[in-house]
């Protein structure tokens, strides 16, 4: 199923933007009277009939609305940007496909790269949401300094993925099902000891993601997948 995105559907906007319109009419060759499947990214799926297959402004008439199933858990990954931009983009794309609710890009003491193309990451989120046929677009925020982020965190269960010889239990052993989670993923040089101490003061708990040393983007995806499995299997 090809899923199209129109975030203003609840406002009565019944047309696709130029990119979506071109894909619909030129690539998929949809015609007047054909059925469309859409989402507003806010938890709803829509069915519609094309009324004007214009490649710049494809209009449609909504024929049905269905709420997507709600989840009783919330996964928020706060991750330092990787030195290679492609790796952060890979994390964003794959975590959305698996099922993530919020991503925040955080600046840490050892962060090596701070220039983030947020607009490109937003487009990747939309693309991954459509590809995996989801109805909710994850929240994407950045860039936030780590002290500012942890000072305003409101999750019920807070974890920091930190590599040291005394790592505690694995994340899947520590997390409780059906909660609001936030997991901090540090840069390639890891969190500084000062950052670790600050996080522990704010109620974060050290969690292991396994015996292997993981790249930043891999650690983020492992954390996301672990919490997803905890709540869905």
Automatic annotation (TrEMBL):
<dbReference type="InterPro" id="IPR046886">
    <property type="entry name" value="RsmE_MTase_dom"/>
</dbReference>
<protein>
    <recommendedName>
        <fullName>Ribosomal RNA small subunit methyltransferase E</fullName>
        <ecNumber>2.1.1.193</ecNumber>
    </recommendedName>
</protein>
<dbReference type="Pfam" id="PF20260">
    <property type="entry name" value="PUA_4"/>
</dbReference>
<keyword id="KW-0808">Transferase</keyword>
<keyword id="KW-0489">Methyltransferase</keyword>
<keyword id="KW-0963">Cytoplasm</keyword>
<dbReference type="GO" id="GO:0070042">
    <property type="term" value="F:rRNA (uridine-N3-)-methyltransferase activity"/>
</dbReference>
<dbReference type="InterPro" id="IPR046887">
    <property type="entry name" value="RsmE_PUA-like"/>
</dbReference>
<dbReference type="Pfam" id="PF04452">
    <property type="entry name" value="Methyltrans_RNA"/>
</dbReference>
<dbReference type="InterPro" id="IPR029026">
    <property type="entry name" value="tRNA_m1G_MTases_N"/>
</dbReference>
<keyword id="KW-0949">S-adenosyl-L-methionine</keyword>
<feature type="domain" description="Ribosomal RNA small subunit methyltransferase E PUA-like">
    <location>
        <begin position="16"/>
        <end position="62"/>
    </location>
</feature>
<dbReference type="InterPro" id="IPR006700">
    <property type="entry name" value="RsmE"/>
</dbReference>
<feature type="domain" description="Ribosomal RNA small subunit methyltransferase E methyltransferase">
    <location>
        <begin position="74"/>
        <end position="227"/>
    </location>
</feature>
<dbReference type="InterPro" id="IPR029028">
    <property type="entry name" value="Alpha/beta_knot_MTases"/>
</dbReference>
<dbReference type="InterPro" id="IPR015947">
    <property type="entry name" value="PUA-like_sf"/>
</dbReference>
<comment type="function">
    <text>Specifically methylates the N3 position of the uracil ring of uridine 1498 (m3U1498) in 16S rRNA. Acts on the fully assembled 30S ribosomal subunit.</text>
</comment>
<keyword id="KW-0698">rRNA processing</keyword>
<comment type="similarity">
    <text>Belongs to the RNA methyltransferase RsmE family.</text>
</comment>
<dbReference type="GO" id="GO:0005737">
    <property type="term" value="C:cytoplasm"/>
</dbReference>
<dbReference type="GO" id="GO:0070475">
    <property type="term" value="P:rRNA base methylation"/>
</dbReference>
């Amino acid at each position: 199923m090809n899923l199209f995105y129109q975030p203003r559907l609840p406002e009565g906007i019944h047309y696709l933007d130029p990119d979506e319109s071109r894909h619909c009419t030129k690539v998929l060759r949809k015609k007047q009277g054909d059925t469309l499947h859409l989402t507003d990214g806010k938890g709803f799926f829509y069915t519609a009939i094309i009324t004007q297959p214009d490649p710049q402004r494809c209009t449609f008439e909504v024929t049905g609305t269905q709420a997507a199933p709600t989840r009783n858990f919330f996964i928020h990954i706060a991750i330092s940007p990787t030195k290679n931009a492609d790796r952060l983009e890979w994390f964003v794309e794959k975590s959305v496909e698996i099922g993530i609710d919020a991503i925040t890009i955080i600046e840490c003491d050892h962060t090596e790269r701070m220039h983030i193309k947020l607009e490109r990451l937003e487009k990747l989120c939309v693309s991954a949401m459509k590809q995996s046929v989801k109805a909710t677009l994850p929240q994407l925020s950045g860039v936030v300094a780590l002290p500012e982020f942890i000072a305003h965190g409101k999750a019920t269960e807070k974890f920091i993925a930190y590599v040291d010889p005394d790592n505690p239990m694995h994340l899947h052993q520590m997390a409780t099902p059906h909660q609001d989670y936030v997991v901090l993923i540090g840069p390639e040089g890891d969190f500084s000891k000062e950052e670790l101490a600050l996080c522990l003061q704010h109620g974060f708990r050290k969690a292991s993601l396994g015996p292997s040393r993981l790249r930043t983007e891999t650690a983020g995806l492992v954390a996301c997948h672990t919490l997803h499995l905890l709540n869905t299997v």
